[in-house]
């Protein structure tokens, strides 16, 4: 197994139920989209259909920072050895995604990959780990640079490590 990170994240293009790319986030109810994605993921042992069929997707369960309730988010991921790597891009929005705030408050998470489910600990990569993880991002996650240009915040790179 290599130590070079491999980001095989899903491209953030949103598609309609008919598989047609949507031009804007206002055209889709993201909560409904995610619920349908989670249901399909679980019903098919982690396999998805349509435009996401060849994407590396995991289900990331955090504990709500304020509510304390369980929150499930489908995320594209990459691998760095045995570790999973996700990007808190939030489509280049000025604020971090909710799931990122949740893991800052509660770094113990549950991950579902394929048919496997396990407990893990997540942390934000800092220099030099961040530089190592981003070394190959331009060729593997080409959309990350464009999303970084949309925002002044540094987009967090999150490392997820399985708890033995």
Q: How would you describe this protein?
A:
This protein is an alpha+beta fold and 164 residues long. 24% of the residues lie in helices and 27% in strands. The chain contains 5 helices and 8 strands. It has helices at residues 30-43, 98-105, 129-134, 137-140, 143-149; strands at 6-7, 57-63, 70-76, 78-80, 83-87, 108-113, 116-124, 157-162. It has an 8-stranded antiparallel β-sheet, with helices on both faces. Strand 6 (108-113) and strand 7 (116-124) form a beta hairpin. The chain is globular. Residues 1-27 have low confidence and may be disordered.
Largest sheet: 8 strands, antiparallel
Order of helices and strands: EHEEEEHEEHHHE
What's the overall average pLDDT, rounded?
84
> What is the β-strand count?
8
Contiguous uncertain segments of 5+ residues: 1-27
The proportion of strand residues reads 25-35%
Shape descriptor: globular
Structural class: alpha+beta
Estimated radius of gyration: 15 Å
Strand line-up of the largest beta sheet: 1-4-5-8-7-6-2-3
Can you count the helices? 5
Range of helix content: 10-25%
User: Kindly, what is the distance between the CA atoms of the first and last residues, rounded to a whole number of angstroms?
Assistant: 19 Å
């Amino acid at each position: 197994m290599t130590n070079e990170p491999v980001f095989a994240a899903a491209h953030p293009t949103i598609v309609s139920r008919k598989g047609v790319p949507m031009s804007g986030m206002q055209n889709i109810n993201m909560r409904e989209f995610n619920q349908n994605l989670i249901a399909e993921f679980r019903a098919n042992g982690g396999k998805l259909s349509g435009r996401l069929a060849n994407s590396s997707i995991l289900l990331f369960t955090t504990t709500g920072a304020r509510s304390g309730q369980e929150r499930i988010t489908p995320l594209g991921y990459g691998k760095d050895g045995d570790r999973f790597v996700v990007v808190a891009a939030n489509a280049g929005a000025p604020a971090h995604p909710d799931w990122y705030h949740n893991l800052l408050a509660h770094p113990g998470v549950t991950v579902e990959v394929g048919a496997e489910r396990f407990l893990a600990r997540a942390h934000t990569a800092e220099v030099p780990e961040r530089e190592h993880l981003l070394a190959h991002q331009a060729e593997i996650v080409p959309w990350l640079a464009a999303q970084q240009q949309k925002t002044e915040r540094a987009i967090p790179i999150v490392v997820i490590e399985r708890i033995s």
